[in-house]
């Protein structure tokens, strides 16, 4: 099973041909702009209807928390292969990998694998270590998000999501047991689960703030259910940061859990814009900072 998982990861880490990547980027960008414009007109909202306090909170609290958890995720992946990178390097890699994820390739995975390889790990171990936190996140999101979907929407969809989450957790456990050092294994596993649970919580908060900014009330279980869309786009991998796919999944899930379809499109678009603005500032600070 470990050999099969590593072959699958190796295939996922292989970028699509350049022509296909450019086509995906153009089509996804045009599609999300057109869908957002339609959703804005369909919802009947205007600029005066936007609640700006949740937008500010998403920008100054939730987005930095996402970046901090991204850095923590790199640190635990490095610990799986026996490395202990500094906080500064972890933040730098998290910014670069987040930016690379906007390209039509599995940018975050490729940057993380290369960073771990440069620090002394083989490609195979670096690939496995990079996948462990991601699979753990897919697993936790599947379990919690699936339960939320079953609470707010169709039970069968929630059950299928939970089953997929269990599969992802099993895969993470197999890779972890075959890659992580024996010393401190239990503590490291607990840390990985804590970091990925934090990812799920922050993802739900970000989407909840985006909903609130649009003047729509949302239950915590609805925000958790929507976070499943982020996990699915990461699993898909070859779209630029899930561009278009994430928004489509959020929009598709929204009516199933009691939210309007056009609101779902705007939720994903608003969260995307806030994150990209914050990431641009963070990347600028990293590039300007003396090495």
Please give a structural write-up:
- The mean pLDDT is 81.
- The protein has one domain.
- α5 packs antiparallel against α6 and α10 runs antiparallel to α11.
- The chain has eleven helices and no strands.
- By secondary structure, it is mainly alpha-helical.
- Helices cover 79% and strands 0% of the residues.
Give the class from helix and strand content and strand pairing. Answer: mainly alpha
Distance between the termini: 42 Å
The number of domains is: 1
Assign a percent range to the helix content.
over 70%
Number of strands: 0
Shape: globular
Count of alpha/pi helices: 11
Which stretches are poorly predicted, pLDDT < 50 over at least 5 residues?
none
- Our estimate of the beta-strand percent is under 5%
Largest sheet: none
Strand and helix map with partners:
Elements: H1 2-12, H2 18-43, H3 52-80, H4 87-100, H5 107-118, H6 123-152, H7 155-179, H8 185-213, H9 220-236, H10 245-253, H11 261-288
Write a brief structural summary.
By secondary structure, the chain is an all-alpha fold. Helices cover 79% and strands 0% of the residues.
Spell out the key features of this protein:
291 residues; globular; 11 helices; single chain; mainly alpha
């Amino acid at each position: 099973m470990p050999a099969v998982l590593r072959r699958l990861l190796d295939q996922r880490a292989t970028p699509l041909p350049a022509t296909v990547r450019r086509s995906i980027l153009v089509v996804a960008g045009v599609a999300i702009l057109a869908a957002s414009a339609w959703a804005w007109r369909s919802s009947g909202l205007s600029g005066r209807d936007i609640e700006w306090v949740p937008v500010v909170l998403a920008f100054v609290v939730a987005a930095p928390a996402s970046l901090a958890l991204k850095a923590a995720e790199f640190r635990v992946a490095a610990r799986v292969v026996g490395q202990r990178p500094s906080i500064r390097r972890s933040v730098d890699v998290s910014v670069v990998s987040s930016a690379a994820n906007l390209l039509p390739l599995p940018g975050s995975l490729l940057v993380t694998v290369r960073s771990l390889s440069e620090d002394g790990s083989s490609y195979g171990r670096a690939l496995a270590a990079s996948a462990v936190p991601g699979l753990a996140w897919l697993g936790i999101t599947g379990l919690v998000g699936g339960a939320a979907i079953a609470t707010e929407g169709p039970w069968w969809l929630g059950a299928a999501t939970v089953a997929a989450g269990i599969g992802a957790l099993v895969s993470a456990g197999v890779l972890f047991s075959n890659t992580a050092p024996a010393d401190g294994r239990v503590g490291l596993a607990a840390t990985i689960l804590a970091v990925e649970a934090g990812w799920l919580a922050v993802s739900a908060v970000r989407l909840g703030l985006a909903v609130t900014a649009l003047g729509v009330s949302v239950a915590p279980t609805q925000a958790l259910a929507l976070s499943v869309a982020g996990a699915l786009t990461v699993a898909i991998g070859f779209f630029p940061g899930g561009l278009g796919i994430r928004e489509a999944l959020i929009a598709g899930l929204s009516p199933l859990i009691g939210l309007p379809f056009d609101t779902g499109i705007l939720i994903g678009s608003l969260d995307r814009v806030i994150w990209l603005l914050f990431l641009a500032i963070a990347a600028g600070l990293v590039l300007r900072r003396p090495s």
